[in-house]
TrEMBL record:
Domain of life: Bacteria
Family: Belongs to the glucose-1-phosphate thymidylyltransferase family.
Signal peptide: none
Keywords: Magnesium, Metal-binding, Nucleotidyltransferase, Transferase
Gene3D superfamilies from the UniProt entry: Spore Coat Polysaccharide Biosynthesis Protein SpsA, Chain A (3.90.550.10)
Cofactors: Mg(2+)
Entry's Gene Ontology molecular function annotations: glucose-1-phosphate thymidylyltransferase activity; metal ion binding
Protein name according to UniProt: Glucose-1-phosphate thymidylyltransferase
Organism, as annotated: Pseudooceanicola atlanticus
NCBIfam families: rmlA
Amino acid sequence: MTNRKGIILAGGSGTRLYPITIGVSKQLLPIYDKPMIYYPLTVLMLAGIREICVITTPHDQDQFKRTLGDGSQWGIELTYITQPSPDGLAQAYLLAEDFLDGAPSAMVLGDNIFFGHGLPEMLEQAGRQTGGGTVFGYHVADPERYGVVAFDSAGNVTEIVEKPPVPPSNYAVTGLYFLDGSAPQRAREVKPSDRGELEITTLLESYLHDGLLSVKRMGRGYAWLDTGTHASLLDAGNFVRTLTERQGQQVGSPDEIAFQMGWITKEALLDRAKVFAKNGYGAYLEALAMGRG
């Protein structure tokens, strides 16, 4: 158990995915057999975090509540916070300041999917940091789409550049941020960028300037997917389907993780299996509860 609290940023208008997001939040779209938000939620659960706030738009919040409830079915506690307007990723720390109440945090973007052997250990290590911040760099073919990490000749991080036309490296900063309790205070000092947003890269630069930012490189054994386009949404669904059908194991299952973490009982897991009795997910949870998984 950790005193670190979690933030899932699931706001925004999803206009890049129109028309499929006109009537539903992007983070509630299906990624194969689960709503998208299950995947970032399970990342925080794997980090041992049980107090999590979900930041949504005002008109989408009821949909999230219907989908996730209060979290008690998974042995966690979910709090909902509204984001009146999408004014940048760093804004999340201002909105969640009262929820965090001085605690360190792990924020994950609601449209990011992480997978890889050793992921729980990597998250646990980042969560043990008592001060400063930890983010993750992932090698991509198109770094100009992201915040990009610049390294010196010794491999030390020198800066993080938002969507640079000439990227200083191929390492993009993923949508997962482990920051200490000073994040809201630092976020208040962030000035809007030219596009009018409170940029997360500016907040991270604050930590970097003070010598308090660690960038962990995710190796080839990890997958990081964002789902900002129709093509990447389909790719993510196919990726999860391939893993699920090939290995016979679930990806992004909060029910399975809650059971493995000892947060819910066998009986509670069997109750959850009954909810999904008409599909393979229910059969999977029943087998897991009975030790056949």
